[in-house]
Each structure stands twice: as structure tokens, then as C-alpha cells.
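queue> pop job 88
queue> type: inverse folding (structure -> sequence)
queue> payload:
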């Protein structure tokens, strides 16, 4: 008998262009996983609206992420690729989970606290964001969730909710584990290496977009903040340099040790130049494929429709079980 493959689940918000943080921390791992696991990759449009979105932009960004998934090698014959709002069971399970989520725990989520600080008005959706994320994962009984370090707390909440439900009713949900890159699970801003690289950074020199032109990539890396020590080492005391080494290692597949050894004598300038070259070499072909996929509206539609159908089928199986255990009458 063949052993059942583990299930991998991840999602990316269509909330603007993706940065190399998104790529290194999550997206770059997706294609390889589809070879050995049953994978589901979602464009989480319902999460994106927890901050205000312009409808036309949201539509564009959703298709952009989908095309980028394909450009990065995701294959609809190997993985289920779909859009979150096409599967109503996410919100349905999300509601159930909300009824066993403590407000205290949600209030302690650092991502919520950061975003709330920046918002004039705090809406309930922002607070409940992690509950919907838990529903995404638990609906498909995912074993592994490839995400960046900033999602650790959300995965822990997901496990807590699964355990609470299993304990209150009976074993229902798999407890998922986070899968994170050894190097690059937290890529930092190029201008302020103490804060995470993010597309919401007002300083655009702080981040590199996956779709940035080669010249822009080179310019931004050249301007990246380092330090005045002038010594290539990999240490928390040199956060700018450490971040560049993480980026270089992720894009070149060289080890951190090899990079440090090679650039000890070559210095910061050479390290920056070669880092930029490695990033451009990986991103250029992705950008080319992105343009092709993005123009093929019919293909994108076919993929998200078929993906949505497969996802709904799986999601419904879990949701029906959940509703039955709670005591809802089948309609
Ligand atoms: P989002 O769209 O904000 O980020 C997508 C992925 O990119 C990772 N990431 C980073 N990794 C390393 N360094 C960075 N600077 C960096 N910035 C972002 C994020 O950790 C994430 O893996 N809540 C999720 C979306 C989501 C989801 C899910 C993920 C919704 N439901 C279910 C997994 C499973 C998020 O923040 O996406």
C-alpha cells in the first residue's frame, strides 16, 4: 500500500506587488513541495480586504498573484491553485472557530498590533484575520504550512484552535506544522535592517519587488544600508550585511559559510554587486513567464475555476464533519 502523501497548504495576499521577502520566505519553496506532497496554494483575497482595497486593484492583484504562482513553477496538474473567495467554506469554518477563539489571544497577535497601530479605525476583520487563516489551513487537514517567520504566531493559534475543537468534540483536525526556510525566513528592509521587508514600506528603497526591473534591483541593493566595520561576517551586530548575505544565499543557493569566506577579502562592494546579479538572474526569467501567463486570461480563468472546484470538494468534506459534530442539522 502506498503511504498517503502529506498535505501542504499556503496562501499569499493579493495586496499589491510581492517583495523578495514573500518570494524567499514562502513562494520560492512552493514549486519543489508540489513534487512530493499534495499541495494547495491559495490567493487569499478575503484576507486582503482586512485593509481597504480599491476593487479594480484587488482584481488586478489577484490575477497577478495567480500568474506569479505559475511563473514560479506551480503546476495545476500537481497542485490545487485557487482563489479563497471561491470557496465559501473558509468563512463558514472561520465562524465556527471564532466561537472558540479567545479575544485575549487575538489581541496579542503582533501582526494585528502592528497593523492596528497604523489604522485610524480598527475593524473586526483585522482582529479576526488569524481565525480565517486557521480555517484556511484546517479545512484541508494540512500537515505543513510553508510561510515566513512572521506567520509563526498565526500557526500557533491555528494549532491551539485545532486542539481546542478536537478536545471539545472529538479528534477532527490535523495539527499543522510551520515549514520555514533555514535562511531567509525573515528578510529585512534594505534601508532599516531592524524591520521586516514589506510592500507597505513608504520608502521604496527598502524593498525589492519580484517584478522590479533589473536596474532598480541593482540600484536598491547598491544603496542598501550596511555598517562602517568593513568586515564581512554573519552576525546580528551587522544586521544590514546579514540580510544581504541571507538574500544572496537564498538566490544563489550558496551557503552562508561559503559567502562569508569568499567575500572576506572582496568586501561589501563586491558582495552587493554579486547579490544583485544573483537576484536578477533568478527573477528575470520569472518576470518573462509572468508576462506571458498574465496575458492569458482564459488560462488563468480555467486554472482558478478548476482549482476552486477541487478545493470546494475537499473543504466541504471537512465542514460537513465539523457541522455534524457541533450539532447542526444537515440541510
Ligand atoms: P502575506 O501575503 O503577507 O505574505 C506571504 C508570505 O510571505 C512571507 N513573508 C516574508 N518572508 C520572509 N521575509 C519577509 N520579509 C516576508 N514578508 C512576507 C509571509 O510569511 C507569508 O508566508 N497570513 C498570510 C497569508 C495567509 C496564509 C493562509 C498563509 C492567509 N491564509 C494560510 C498560509 C496558510 C500572509 O501574511 O501573507
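queue> result:
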Amino acid at each position: 500500500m502506498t503511504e498517503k502523501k502529506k498535505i501542504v497548504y499556503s496562501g499569499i495576499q493579493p495586496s499589491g506587488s510581492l517583495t523578495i521577502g514573500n518570494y524567499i520566505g514562502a513562494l520560492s519553496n512552493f514549486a519543489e513541495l508540489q513534487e512530493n506532497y499534495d499541495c494547495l496554494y491559495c490567493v487569499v483575497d478575503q484576507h486582503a480586504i482586512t485593509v481597504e482595497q480599491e476593487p479594480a486593484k484587488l482584481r488586478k492583484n489577484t490575477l497577478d498573484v495567480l500568474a506569479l504562482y505559475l511563473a514560479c513553477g506551480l503546476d495545476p496538474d500537481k497542485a490545487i491553485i485557487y482563489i479563497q473567495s471561491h470557496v465559501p467554506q473558509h468563512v463558514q469554518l472561520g465562524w465556527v472557530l471564532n466561537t472558540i477563539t479567545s479575544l485575549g489571544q487575538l489581541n496579542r497577535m503582533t501582526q494585528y498590533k502592528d497593523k492596528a497601530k497604523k489604522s485610524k479605525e480598527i475593524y473586526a476583520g483585522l482582529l479576526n484575520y488569524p481565525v480565517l487563516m486557521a480555517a484556511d489551513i484546517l479545512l484541508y487537514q494540512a500537515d505543513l504550512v510553508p510561510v515566513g517567520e512572521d506567520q509563526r504566531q498565526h500557526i500557533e493559534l491555528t494549532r491551539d484552535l485545532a486542539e481546542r475543537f478536537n478536545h471539545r468534540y472529538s479528534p477532527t483536525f490535523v495539527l499543522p506544522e510551520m515549514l520555514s526556510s533555514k535562511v531567509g525566513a525573515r528578510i529585512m528592509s534594505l534601508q532599516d535592517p531592524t524591520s521586516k521587508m514589506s510592500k507597505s514600506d513608504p520608502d521604496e528603497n527598502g524593498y525589492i519587488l519580484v517584478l522590479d526591473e533589473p536596474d532598480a534591483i541593482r540600484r536598491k541593493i547598491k544603496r542598501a544600508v550596511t555598517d562602517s566595520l568593513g568586515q564581512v561576517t554573519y552576525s546580528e551586530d551587522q544586521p544590514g550585511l546579514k540580510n544581504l548575505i541571507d538574500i544572496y544565499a537564498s538566490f544563489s543557493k550558496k551557503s552562508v559559510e561559503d559567502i562569508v569566506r569568499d567575500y572576506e577579502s572582496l568586501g561589501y562592494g563586491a558582495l552587493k554587486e554579486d547579490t544583485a546579479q544573483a537576484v536578477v538572474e533568478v527573477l528575470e526569467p520569472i518576470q518573462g513567464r509572468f508576462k506571458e501567463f498574465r496575458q492569458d486570461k482564459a488560462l488563468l480563468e480555467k486554472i482558478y475555476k478548476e482549482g476552486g472546484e477541487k478545493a470546494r470538494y475537499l473543504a466541504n468534506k471537512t465542514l460537513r464533519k465539523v457541522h455534524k459534530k457541533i450539532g447542526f442539522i444537515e440541510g
